[in-house]
From TrEMBL:
It holds the Pfam family LpxC. It comes from Desulfurispira natronophila. This is UDP-3-O-acyl-N-acetylglucosamine deacetylase. Catalyzes the hydrolysis of UDP-3-O-myristoyl-N-acetylglucosamine to form UDP-3-O-myristoylglucosamine and acetate, the committed step in lipid A biosynthesis. Its cofactor is Zn(2+). It comes from the Bacteria. Belongs to the LpxC family.
């Protein structure tokens, strides 16, 4: 049976602070017609600027994934994009009155709940799908991310840090709505205190706090209530990966295997997938299936 595209039943809104900019931002998410895809509209500039949620429009990957068009940008899109993908939203208009998606609690949980509350409806057009038929690898020293042929969508992720509390974690999850909501969506962004202190010294992480990030000092997790999962750190890296790869604009059929990957490598993989024969064009015109050679 052919899977059909979906959008929201009704609009939703949320207000919060940007993790890095510290800006107070409001977003409104509206249902959109079939084959429109997901796109952002910066409503705080005149005339409003439309920025497609596409890997081609990624202009920065340091600390977060940033989309841009001309001189205008929308940063930290990965948590919202992960929620769109997991909840099966193919088409949506995201109006935003600032330069960064609000971080909320540092996870995707609030976004997924908003979308469930809004309702999800099927549309009269087949979904776009990227079917991986041969391995694709992006390697940078000891970091890598690979996409392998598979019958569904799955992510196997490993992280490693030179830290007493967090040396190595590994996890594998199927990426579907139920699993994402239960196992992935509540995992929060995290940082080492030494890095937070440095970022603030150069004017970043202005909106960060223990209310929207897990912070680790030399010996412990600083958040009063601790972790939501014992391996919350690697689960959040999987969440980020889902959001970054959602910028391919299609449903993915393949298995990700990654080690020490981040936004940069994730985006390079996404670009490589859609740049394969027919990939980018077929994603845009809404073909039901794209087979990469």
């Amino acid at each position: 049976m052919t899977a059909m595209q979906q959008t929201l039943f009704s609009p939703v809104s949320v207000y919060g602070v940007g993790l890095h900019s510290g800006s107070q931002v409001r977003i409104h998410i509206y249902p959109e017609r079939q084959n429109a895809g997901i796109y952002f509209v910066r409503t705080d500039v005149a005339p409003p600027v439309v920025i497609p949620a596409s890997c081609e429009y990624v202009v920065a990957t340091k600390l977060a994934t940033t989309l841009g068009r001309g001189e205008h940008q929308v940063s930290t899109v990965e948590h919202l994009m992960a929620a769109f993908y997991a909840m099966g939203i193919d088409n949506a208009r995201v109006e935003i009155d600032g330069p960064e998606v609000p971080v909320l609690d540092g996870s995707s949980a609030s976004f997924t709940m908003l979308m469930k509350d809004a309702g999800i409806v099927k549309q009269d057009a087949p979904r776009r799908e990227l079917i991986i038929t041969r391995p694709i690898s992006i390697v940078d020293g000891d970091r890598f991310i690979k996409m392998l042929p598979a019958s569904g969508y799955e992510i196997d992720f490993t992280i490693e840090f030179d830290h007493k509390l967090l040396s190595s974690q590994q996890a594998t999850y199927a990426i579907d709505q139920e699993t994402f909501e239960r196992e992935i969506s509540r995992s929060r962004t995290f940082a080492f205190k030494r890095d937070v202190d440095y970022l603030r010294s150069i004017g970043l992480a202005k909106g960060g706090s223990l209310e929207n990030a897990v912070v680790i000092d030399d010996y412990k997790v600083m958040n009063v209530h601790g972790l939501r999962y014992k391996d919350e750190f690697v689960r959040h890296k999987i969440l980020d990966c889902v959001g970054d790869l959602a910028l391919c604009g299609a449903r993915i059929r393949g298995k990700v295997v990654a080690s020490k990957s981040g936004h940069e490598l994730n985006n390079r993989l996404c670009r490589t997938m859609v740049a394969q024969e027919m990939g980018a064009d077929a994603c845009r015109v809404g073909l039901a299936a794209i087979s990469l050679p």
